[in-house]
Design brief:
Length: 239
């Protein structure tokens, strides 16, 4: 997605509008699964995966089915480190699955270990984390300060506020959400917090978190032609 000069002025705060109309690219990328895209981008690279643990009760089954993102990254990259605040989850993964290069770390409060600082990472991957953070701008500012010397780019992923299932649930008078989420992001609001935190946006695209069955023809048609209805936003940014 490429923003117009006018939208760039909105993002920077140079211009204000109480009714800014942001045009979304109709011609989006082909309908691609989130993990497939992340593996394509990071293949053969050095990656630091922030928030890698996922939900502890699901890890064994995800690994068995080949669906746990961190394991897929390990198999796909030259080097993959993981950091997470979930000490219980990390200890379990190390004990039961013998995975190395994992760090229990609060990136906001803790000092980064030298072992991380000594590696030049191609990507810092932050998938589906930002919506859990109470102050996402402050979080991204700290990330930028701590990793700007040894990381080339950051990839953010987050659920899309305009996703198709959200519209369906409106007609059922309900909201379906992870109870730990603080925010829903649109393309513009995600771009706004990233800009406020001092980053430059390289790319922004629309993806599906899962895979569509062959019988979901109507949904596939809508997602192909109206990419803003897709599940997930993925943004690549420069520090």
């Amino acid at each position: 997605m490429h923003y117009s000069d006018q939208t760039q002025r909105y993002l920077s705060g140079e211009t204000f509008s109480n009714g800014a109309l942001i045009t979304v690219d109709k011609e989006a990328s082909p309908l691609v699964n989130r993990d497939d895209f992340l593996l394509q981008v990071t293949k053969g690279k050095k990656v630091l995966h922030l928030g890698f643990v996922d939900h502890l009760p699901l890890i064994d089954e995800k690994i068995r089915q080949g669906k746990w993102l961190h394991k897929k990254l390990i198999d796909n990259t030259t080097l993959c480190y993981g950091i997470d605040i979930n000490q219980e989850g990390i200890e379990y993964i190390q004990k039961e699955h013998h995975i190395d290069n994992l760090y229990t770390l609060d990136v906001i409060l803790d000092t980064l270990p030298q072992a991380l600082l000594d590696v030049k990472f191609d990507y810092l991957l932050i998938p589906d984390v930002i919506e859990h953070i109470g102050n996402p701008v402050a979080f991204l500012e700290v990330i930028r300060e701590k990793f700007k010397q040894n990381t080339s780019k950051i990839i953010l992923t987050t659920p899309n506020a305009f996703r198709w299932n959200n519209f369906l649930n409106v007609f059922k008078h309900r909201e379906l959400i992870n109870s730990d989420h603080r925010f829903w992001f649109t393309p513009y609001t995600l771009s706004k917090i990233v800009t406020d935190a001092g980053y430059k946006i390289d790319t922004l695209g629309y993806f599906e978190h899962g895979r569509l069955s062959r019988r979901q023809l109507v949904r596939k048609y809508l997602l192909d032609n109206y990419p803003l209805l897709r599940d997930t936003l993925i943004m690549e940014i420069e520090l």
